[in-house]
């Protein structure tokens, strides 16, 4: 509960900051923190739900194999610590905006890849349970 609360609040703080202290372009740019918030929350609960669905299967689920270096690097944009590091640029608004937007886009791509993987994993479990 604390993890998802901090995830929500950090993007709400960015939204308030953009509204209060200015943002590039039109007011539509204020949708970026809201989009990032949505992607972050869906990713968080996707992980939680997939884990619970795996545990609920009557088929024994082996422990997940260790993550490879490539998978770890690909998932970095979804890491909360990387977002925190990006806040080191908060005092330099143009740099922060660019990094924040890049992380948002990359996190969105990680979410899409995660959804596809979770779907394949759960389908495989369904087939194993049916046989």
From TrEMBL:
Name the record gives this protein: MFS transporter
Domain of life: Bacteria
Lineage, opening ranks: Bacteria, Bacillati, Actinomycetota, Actinomycetes, Micrococcales
Membrane-spanning intervals of the chain: 28-49, 69-91, 97-119
Keywords assigned: Membrane, Transmembrane, Transmembrane helix
């Amino acid at each position: 509960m604390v993890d998802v609360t901090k995830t929500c609040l950090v993007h709400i703080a960015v939204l308030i900051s953009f509204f209060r202290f200015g943002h590039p372009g039109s007011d539509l740019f204020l949708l970026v923190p809201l989009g990032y918030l949505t992607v972050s929350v869906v990713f968080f609960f996707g992980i939680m739900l997939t884990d619970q669905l795996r545990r609920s299967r009557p088929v024994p689920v082996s422990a997940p194999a260790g993550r490879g270096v490539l998978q770890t690097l690909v998932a970095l944009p979804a890491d909360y610590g990387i977002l925190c590091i990006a806040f080191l640029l908060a005092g330099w608004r143009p740099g922060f905006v660019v990094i924040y937007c890049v992380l948002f886009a990359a996190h969105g791509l990680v979410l899409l890849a995660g959804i596809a993987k979770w779907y394949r994993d759960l389908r495989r479990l369904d087939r194993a349970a049916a046989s």
